[in-house]
Specification:
globular, about 400 residues, single chain, mainly alpha
């Protein structure tokens, strides 16, 4: 019974597609995790680790904010090559710049962090857009890979620098080779058929209802502004009377239509998670004799690991669990934040194990909203609008 149910769930899944997108999600996000895990080693004890966090988050967010309006002109193969080169260059800058104690400059290391962040931001919106061509299992595999990046990235860096005894420089140099996996996944593992099938272009004159504004009362099927280029990327096609400025304005209006149903619930989840993990969690301490720990420094890494476990589980759950209403779990995440803030102030939770459960629940909710937001876009947004919508919604991750 169970095996038959499992076969039914994964009916139609292509192993090569799932493998490629799982690796895309893993490699695109794992460098972000490694950089944050190495924050203290990068800047030293005299500089706040928030410097690394800002350098790792802001460029990625800015890329997600503006790239959906121009990245369609870059073919997917060229994008993947650029992502791999930029992220590897960034990690090499971080690894090869001498430590601050040996005369190295933090500025150079932060430049490397910025490069890796730009590549990760552009990579996320591009690979999510690519799932439009490969169906729902590619989205499920991508989500699972991004969830695995948190566990694997932090764990691998800790094992390399502590258990194995590798130096920080050697560990970061090894991580600079990881983008090769992204290239291998795209050019060797991923079947190219779905991209080549989505050929053929349309101008606005060829799209029924083009003479009406895209958000007039025309049916969704008549609102297409995007079509597929011969290289598989999505391009904007306009007639001679439609300027690039007009196209940009229309794209901005399309982005606005995504805000309430998709961007806002995802944004709420990430704001709550960021505040919990970066601001509240370090204050959630208990007397050592009532916990499994011997040192107070063990609390925060344990919370982080439990959170990442929850994220991995829920981001891997898309074939099994679907939610169609995104706001209830977003509000539950805000409730998690409220409970933990109140406990930090008034200390009313009876045990650290209760906090463990809340943090696990936090990770489950965050991953659930992430994958189901993009799954809902795949179900609800018209096909000709979908690739743009998948990429544009990533801007909800302003802080995380």
């Amino acid at each position: 019974m169970f095996s038959a149910r499992l076969r039914s769930i994964f009916s139609g899944a292509d192993l090569r597609v799932c493998t490629a997108f799982w690796l895309f999600g893993l490699i695109n996000n794992v460098l972000y995790v490694i950089i944050l895990s190495a924050a203290l080693d990068l800047v030293g004890p005299s500089v706040p680790k928030s410097v690394v966090l800002l350098a790792d988050v802001i460029p990625s967010f800015l890329m997600k904010l503006v790239a959906p309006y121009f990245i369609h002109v870059v073919p997917y193969p060229l994008r993947v090559i650029l992502f791999a080169l930029i992220s590897a260059w960034g990690m090499l800058l971080i690894a090869l710049t001498p430590a601050y104690t040996d005369g190295g400059t933090i500025t150079t290391k932060m430049a490397g962090v910025v490069l890796a962040s730009l590549s990760s931001g552009a990579g996320e919106l591009s690979f999510l857009g690519l799932t439009h061509h490969y169906g729902p299992f590619s989205l499920a595999a991508w989500g699972s890979g991004t969830g695995g990046a948190g566990l694997i990235g932090a764990g691998a860096y800790a094992i390399a620098t502590t258990t194995v005894g590798m130096s920080v420089k050697a560990s970061l140099l090894a991580s600079a080779s990881l983008p090769i996996v992204m290239l291998f996944s795209f050019f060797v593992v991923l079947p190219r058929g779905p991209l080549s099938q989505n050929r053929g272009t349309k101008t606005l004159d060829e799209i029924p209802g083009h003479e009406e504004d895209i958000y007039d009362d025309a049916e969704p099927e008549n609102r297409g502004l995007l079509s597929e280029s011969p290289n598989g990327s999505t391009i904007m096609r306009t007639n001679n009377n439609t300027s690039w400025t007009t196209g940009l304005v229309r794209n901005l209006r399309r982005s606005r239509s995504l805000f309430i149903p998709y961007i806002l619930p995802l944004f709420l989840v990430y704001v709550a998670e960021y505040l919990i993990n970066q601001s509240v969690a370090p204050t959630l301490l208990f007397p050592l004799h009532s916990t499994p720990f011997s040192h107070f420094r063990s609390f925060y890494p344990t919370y982080a690991t439990i959170y990442q476990l929850g994220v991995f589980i829920s981001r891997s759950s898309l074939p099994f669990v679907r939610i169609h209403h995104l706001y209830p779990p977003s509000f539950l995440q805000c409730l998690n934040l409220l409970v933990l803030v109140l406990h930090s102030l008034y200390y009313f939770l009876p045990s650290v194990y209760v906090v463990f459960a809340i943090v696990l629940w936090e990770g489950l909710l965050g991953g659930l909203v992430y994958v189901n937001t993009f799954a809902e876009i795949g179900d609800q947004v018209p096909k000709e609008e979908r690739e743009f919508a998948l990429g544009a919604t990533t801007r909800a991750r302003l802080v995380y």
